[in-house]
Specification:
The protein is an alpha/beta fold and 601 residues long. The protein is built from 21 helices and 22 strands. The strands form five sheets. An eight-stranded mixed beta sheet has the order 13-22-21-14-15-20-16-19, with helices on both faces. Strands 3-2-1-4-5 form a five-stranded mixed beta sheet, sandwiched between helices. The chain has a five-stranded mixed beta sheet with strand order 8-7-6-11-12, with helices on both faces. Strand 7 and strand 8 form a beta hairpin. Helix 10 runs antiparallel to helix 14.
Length: 601
């Protein structure tokens, strides 16, 4: 059975599944170049079909993730297009009147605020017909109207029959993604989803009984995802994009500066037995927090928020572990992307294992949707995520065209070896690698990566100032050969984390040896545990670097400038190379060199 999965939430994307196996998956942002793009992922659909060599008339089923899409959110695209000022404006003009002044405002009123601010280009959105239809049919459910438009849009692109386009509940997509993205289906896990909000809930608990995922509990009152979103805004950063920056800032804070913030956050939710209970003390998140936290230090606020998130999750999960007598944990939904919380749960007494799949938030919903549809409509065995290299691959002709143009400005080598790359890295060069299939999701795992020597702390400053323009408090991450991880990180449960989804404490004797990939405040790292079979060429570079330095570790960050999407093709790769201070670009088996300093060619 061939199934096309579509997610039009934030980080909109598409995927193709055939006979239970994901053939291709890609986010719309890689093609539109609009980071965190939302709405119908037309180009991603076409790219996945082309790469997978699937003809449109061979598709058996089209599956949309979510039965209640974000209405006008899919047109205004707040995570992608809103500035911090836009988010604040929305709170002032829509959420304050609605929540605090009890004015009767609808999602259409919210849309009117931004229709002119975002310009006429939004009228090109295939979902824009929603505006007129809701205006003309105020008594009809706007979600039903939008679902008709969603279905119509897919039919026009694919040419499929109407009854072969279906919708899968948002939370169910998270549950299936969490379970089937793991590497070991033999375990009987507890599955938790927690996020800002789905179709009808913000937190769920599920079991797997006789191979069937069965939801046991749900609530729409869990506030932690919404709280994290709006505290991100209060700290001057973009909601739905920069929550990870707040998490990275938190270890710099402490109880002395953060106690008042923590006590405020504790007034939102509490755990009662196996449930999350909203204490109903506030009518909103943003303004109540703005008033309560005025004058508090930014690092103390971040510390208090992260501490609250971790203690809330720990109590909720451990109470469910006790209730169901199950201690293998799966986390899915946006909050599952909090790598420090995942680490906290993994360290709890009585927990055997913790799994959070790559891009556990809405950026993976379509994959969860096709797995759910496979289970429901076919007898195919679902093959989980063996790796995340599911994106497009560069065409040789495109590579050649870029190389010809680049050779007019830069020195170009026609080939390179892993040993040469390792030597260049050990000499202090910063190298971009654009090879093979693009990774799916927000983590670059070697194929669309910027690589550097983890031993040199000044590398962090250089990457930040000349390439990434990254916030000074944010750490970079390491790629480590999987069999060597035990030398560098504390991992008593031997948890396998191949996709940079979990933080680990570093062993004391190693901290000073790899300062460029360790969080300066809490001495943790977020590794990619790389097996040779998952990416042989990248693995060889790491092992050659070990032959030179004794360390099977490389600094690995995504190949993009700050605020840009990760590069997808050769043209984007060379453009990013030219705009940055990267020393060398590995592209299609060739090397583009900015200068020959520190090279031994």
């Amino acid at each position: 059975m061939i199934i096309l999965g579509i997610s039009d939430s934030h980080e909109a994307h598409a995927c193709i599944l055939k006979d239970g196996k994901i053939l291709a998956a890609a986010a719309e942002e890689r093609f539109s170049r609009v980071k965190a793009d939302c709405g119908y992922p037309y180009t991603a659909v076409e790219a996945c079909l082309k790469y997978a060599k699937i003809k449109k008339n061979d598709i058996d089923l089209v599956v949309f993730a979510g039965k209640k899409a974000g209405l006008f959110y899919t047109i205004t695209k707040p995570p992608a297009l809103f500035s911090v000022d836009d988010w604040i404006y929305q709170n002032e003009k829509f959420w304050r009147p609605k929540l605090l002044e009890n004015k009767e405002l609808s999602a259409l009123d919210d849309f009117y605020l931004f229709r002119d601010r975002l310009g006429d280009s939004i009228k090109e959105n295939p979902y824009y017909a929603l505006v007129n239809l809701v205006e003309k049919n105020p008594k009809e459910s706007p979600y039903e109207i939008l679902n008709k438009i969603r279905k119509k849009t897919a039919i026009e692109q694919i040419g499929i029959e109407k009854d072969k386009v279906i919708f899968i509940r948002h939370e169910e997509c998270h549950q299936f993604y969490g379970y089937y993205s793991q590497t070991d289906f033999k375990k009987t896990p507890l599955i938790f989803t927690i996020e800002g909000g789905g179709d009808d809930s913000s937190a769920t608990t599920s079991l797997v009984e006789e191979g069937i995922i069965k939801e046991k509990y749900k609530t729409n009152d869990a506030m932690i995802g919404r709280l994290y979103r709006y505290i991100t805004l209060l700290l001057g950063m973009k909601p739905c994009q920069h929550e990870y920056k707040v998490m990275g800032l938190a270890p710099y804070g402490n109880e002395y500066h953060g106690k008042k913030s923590l006590n405020h956050f504790r007034m939102f939710d509490k755990i009662k037995e196996d449930k999350i209970i909203n204490l109903k003390k506030f009518k909103d998140v943003y303004y109540s927090s703005k008033e309560a936290l005025e004058g508090q230090r930014f690092d103390g606020i971040a510390w208090g928020l992260q501490t609250y998130l971790e203690e809330l999750l720990e109590e909720w999960i451990l109470n469910n572990v006790k209730k169901y007598n199950l201690n293998d944990i799966i986390l899915s939904g946006g909050v599952a992307q909090n790598i420090k919380a995942v680490q906290r749960i993994a360290s709890c007494k009585g927990i055997n294992s913790v799994w959070a799949g790559p891009i556990a938030g809405d950026g993976s919903l379509a994959i969860g949707a096709v797995w759910a549809a496979t289970k429901r409509f076919s007898n195919d065995n679902i093959e989980g995520l063996k790796n995340i290299y599911l994106g497009t691959e560069m065409h040789p002709k495109d590579i050649d065209e870029v190389i010809i143009q680049a050779s007019k400005k830069f020195k170009v080598l026609s080939s390179y070896s892993p040993k040469q790359v390792a030597r260049w890295l050990s000499n202090g060069n910063i190298i971009a690698r654009c090879e093979g299939r693009m990774e799916f999701g927000q983590r670059a795992l070697g194929n669309r990566s910027i690589l550097a020597d983890p031993r040199k702390h000044d590398t962090v400053q250089r990457i930040n100032e000349k390439i990434k323009y990254r916030d000074f408090w944010m750490p970079f991450t390491p790629s480590i050969s999987n069999e060597d991880c035990k030398r560098f990180i504390e991992n008593k449960n031997n948890i396998y984390s191949p996709f940079m989804t979990m933080a680990f404490d570093c062993k004391e004797d190693i901290v000073d040896k790899i300062p460029a990939v360790i969080h300066p405040a809490d001495k943790t790292c977020r590794p990619q545990m790389l097996k040779e079979e998952d990416n042989p060429d990248y693995y060889k570079i790491i092992k050659e670097f070990e032959n030179i330095t004794g360390l099977p570790i490389l600094l690995n960050t995504s190949f993009n400038l700050h605020g840009d999407s990760i590069v997808e093709n050769p043209q984007q790769a060379i453009k990013t190379f030219e705009k940055s201070d990267i020393d060398l670009l590995l592209l299609g088996g060739k090397v583009i060199i900015r200068n020959e300093k520190n090279l031994d060619i």
